[in-house]
Please model this.
Amino acid sequence: MTGVRTVLVVDDDDAIRDITALALETVGGLAVVTADGGAAALDEARRHRPDAVLLDVMMPGMDGPTTFRHLQADLELRVIPVVLLTAKVQAGERHGWEELGVTGVIAKPFDPMTLSAQLAALLGWDR
Amino acid sequence: MESKRDTSRPARGWGLFRLSCLAAVALAVLFATLLRTAGEGGRQEVGTVSLAVCAGLTVLSAAYAARRSADRRRRAWTVLCLAAAGLLFGNSAAALGGSHPIYAATAFSNGAVLVALLLAIVGLVTYPAVRHRGPELVLMVLDGLIIGGAALIVLSVGAESAVLEWTAGSLNSRITALAVPVLEVTLLTVAVLLVMRSRADAPVLGLLSVGLAVYIVADLTFTAGIARGDLDHSLLLDVCWVGGLLIMAVAGCHPQAAVEAESAPKTPPFELHHTVLVFAAVTAAAVVQIRWGGGTLTTTQSVLWVLLVLAVGARQALLTVDNAGLRRGLERQVRERTQDLRRLVRQNQVLLTSVGDGIYGVDDDGRITFINPLGAEVLGFDQERLLGRRAHQEFHAPSPNGTPRPWDECYITQAIRHGTLTSSEEDEYVRTDGRVLPVEITASPLVDEDRLIGAVVVFRDVTQRREVERIKNEFLSVVSHELRTPLTSIRGALGLLAGGAAGTLEPPAQRMAGVALESSERLTRLINDILDIERIESGRLPMRVAAHEVRDLVESSVAELREMARSTEVELCVGDTSGVVQADADRIVQTLTNLISNAVKFSAPGAEVWVEAVPGGEEVLFRVRDTGRGIPEEKLERVFERFEQVDSSDSRLRGGTGLGLAISRGIVERHGGRIWAESRLGAGTTVQFTIPAAHSMVRSA
Model:
């Protein structure tokens, strides 16, 4: 892989979006684009073709799983790996979401200092 | 008390009895030989002495029986002893007067014998062989009198009306002479009646009766013979007298004489054969009187007949009165029982009507025999319409997949066929309007005299409770999400600050950021743990059970805590880990993580924490061992309760939530395993838990 990887962070909560982006950028050295909802996420994905999507589950309007299904329905976007970020699961209890077809699940609250490493591990990125 | 004494020394009781039997036979033979060999003159003296000896032995034997026994039995034997003493006294008085006690009885000796006979009757009648009611006692004496009187009439006819004439003398001596045979026959009758009515006491009473019979028959034969004037002054009579007394003496030595009979089955108060016996005696007397009486009655016979008729009348009156009393008693009992029954039925009805649950009963075919009004109402049925119908077919809802539940698997069938008691919180009934009703049921078998006759099912509509549960779950889910969302920002921001991602901080600021970060982590753990414990306790913890290598589970847990251990300078050691468990991997890792992090928290720097897992039989035993401060024995169980810690400051100092062990126990128990702690204060703690091993097929795969 060459160049800086780009991650699309999707979350309706501004604070979480900021922290996540900051963690990935400053700690992980990743490029981050953000979206505050499902519809915006699809637009940003089309525009930036990120290397991964970090997707919140509970969002007003189009929620995480729906957004994921839309991404999957798009022939060009379906190749982008998606990791769910959710406050709905307990740590160590991700199977239900993984069955949806996502690459991984990270529980909120997360550790910002290890977030990019966690993400890289799930996606199989060499750092 | 008495029976105890007897059972503890049975050999001695029987030994004495056997000895007394042998002695009696020996004495009888001895006296018979002496009487035979003595000349005509000597026989009277030998007879007198032998009678006195035998009567004396009877006195001693009765006294011995009285001494061994207690209460009513002792009284009876005492009276019988006095009777024997009376006989001895009467005979001795006659003998001292220079005459043979029987062949030449005096009025005085007859009087003593009369008293002895009366005492013997009293003794027998009060003998506690059977439970007597007042009327029964009177009846028994009356029966004795009637049979005795009848026998005397027969005797008087047989002796050609000369019974009284051989006792030339005063009226006093005549009455005495008449009374003795009457009382003798009465006594014999009472004895026979008693033997017929007793069970456990039959041997003793039987011996007494046989002895009495032998003695009395000899006496009566003698009386009749002497009255007729053709007395055969035979040896046989002497032997009979002696033998009769000896047999009575033996009775007193019988082990049963002193033993309280074990609650004899209750005999009906008046039995038919008693009445038959009495009327047979009267009829026999009448036939003899008419056939051989010569058409006339002597004065004695007239008196006897009058007495006989009076006794029979009294007997009849007594029976009538007693029967009336019994009938009244029975009627009263029936009335009371009917009232009780009505009250019980009313009580049951009130109970079934007032109870807040539905209740129905089914017979052994599963058909409804009753249903309470509330039950019928909840199901939307008419109470009467359900009777006789099969509950399972009528309203048991089909399985979640829509197929009818098999009758064989229904809890009603289980209760009826196998007597199984079933409680279920997850059952459904269908109302008449088609609505499915979530119900909680308890089905119990109905057992009557060891036979399964049906089942009774108590059910409760839990629609409201389910709704409350749903709202609660939704609430918890929302709350956890709403709490975690801001917590994610706080924890994230603090993590970045403390981690230096937002620039280097001054040391005091760095310290504060660290404290805030730690607290936000603790808050996160607390929220997670509370959600977990709530789900465990409400049985909603999702479980994904599959076969897992124990080694993988242990390694994941250890990997998760390696960093924590390093920071506190505790060494994490993994011992033997083998086997395959059938479990939810995430939950087992969660449990192990809880236990290992506890062990690390309470270990001193430089100490080791060991994690092991060994298969054994049907399960795998996990073990987490530390060398920390240990747990006091009284807290070994309590640490598995919610918010129970060895020291109340632990949660503050060690950062625990106080829920870890409670969660671990919940998880282990959901798997069907057990968890426990062993500890020595100051030496360390070992927490162990078992998880079912996976099927061997999986292991080899």
Q: What stands out?
A: The first strand of chain B starts at residue 358 and ends at 363. Chain B is about 60% helix and 15% strand. Residues 125 and 137 of chain B are 7 Å apart (CA to CA). The interface with chain A takes residues 477, 480-481, 484-493, 495-496, 499, 501-502, 520, 524, 528, 531-532, 542, 544, 586, 589-590 of chain B (CB under 8 Å).
